[in-house]
């Protein structure tokens, strides 16, 4: 008798396999050999991979290892000594996301990386343009255009709150004195719930009226 979904979930969820840790078990449609795992990589990237490949070790990371190994082969004489750094891991994961055509947020919708940030000298140029990561709480963020490509002038290090404010679904409200924030940040600053601001806007109120400033 085939093992139940709940049994397999209890067996694998939370288990580490090389760089990947299983977060969720997705049963296959017909047989167990096409079941998939939702995994979180040691670099922080989240991917969906065939369960059998993860368990067997055929798939051992989100793909950043291949990028790192390719970089090492192409830049054998590099001396920056940062291949274990947060900046380097973020750079390799950026490439992995954009190369994955099944990723509906990056590669699957055509998000590209500036050519100068690729290849043997790509990391050095990326670091020069973006700078060092300020803290472990910061990750790469496309800003000011969250729907744009990874390129100089559109990438920064940001906290989770800053990234949440930068999502394409956030509405930016600009008032006459020049201040411009997303609804979430206005809500935090003036103490009015975001839902109230959105309701006022839907009723045709101006930005100032929605924020209770007039």
Quick summary:
The chain has 214 residues and is α+β, with helices and mostly antiparallel strands. Helix content is 35%, strand content 16%. The longest helix has 14 residues, at 86-99.
Task: Please describe what this structure looks like.
By secondary structure, the protein is of the alpha+beta class. It folds into 3 domains: 5-56, no CATH class; 64-165, no CATH class; 172-210, no CATH class. 35% of the residues lie in helices and 16% in strands. It is built from 9 helices and 8 strands. The protein has helices at 5-12, 51-56, 64-74, 86-99, 122-130, 160-165, 183-190, 194-202, 207-210, and strands at residues 16-17, 20-26, 36-41, 46-50, 139-142, 155-158, 172-174, 180-182. It has a 4-stranded antiparallel beta sheet. α3 packs across α4. The longest helix is centred in the middle third of the chain and has 14 residues, at 86-99. The radius of gyration is 22 Å and the shape is globular. It starts with a helix and ends with a helix. The relative contact order is 0.07.
